[in-house]
Amino acid sequence: MKHIGILGGTFDPPHIGHLMIAEEVRESMDLDEVWFMPSHEPPHKQKAVAETLDRVEMAERAVAGNPHFKVETIEVNRLGKSYTFDTMKLLKKEHPDAVFYFIIGADMVEYLPRWHHIAELVNMVRFIGVKRKGYDLKSEYQVTEVDAPLIEISSTEIKRRLAHNRSIIYMVPEKVENYLKEKQLYEDR
Length: 189
Known about the structure:
The protein is α/β, with parallel strands linked by helices. It has a single domain (2-151), classed as HUPs (Rossmann fold). It is built from eight helices and six strands; from the N terminus they run E-H-E-H-E-H-H-E-H-H-E-E-H-H. Helix 2 (52-63) packs antiparallel against helix 8. The radius of gyration is 16 Å and the shape is globular.
């Protein structure tokens, strides 16, 4: 039986904070793999700035070199709003022998009661909550807490820095930085 962590997000762009969280959860929970799952259209956020194919490519570049990480494109292939319940139904059907762990930040733990079909979802997946400054991991649903190094990096800050021609070195993997420069994503034109 394979134990697989799912880290969903827009990855607009992916950064070292995402990678550190994924590795910490993988190691702490003894997971076989962590799948980075870019969403097409998240139900709780604004639409991504970068095109879907660019976000998938950046995620692929970000996880390259870690044999425990991969990119799962099930949500971007489905189009429309990405509800975790629908995704997990499909993944459970495709991988009946896998145990799935859905990795969420503490901000999302507070939001769990409003997730689409949460009562059924908690029977399909185990939630892993990553501690985050200013948030509590208390929930009526079972959430396993994992401590990860707190790095105050956000995709929003990276986009802001790029728009103002500021450096993002060490904030994203070098392969992602090269892609951003090559495509001139998020730059003020």
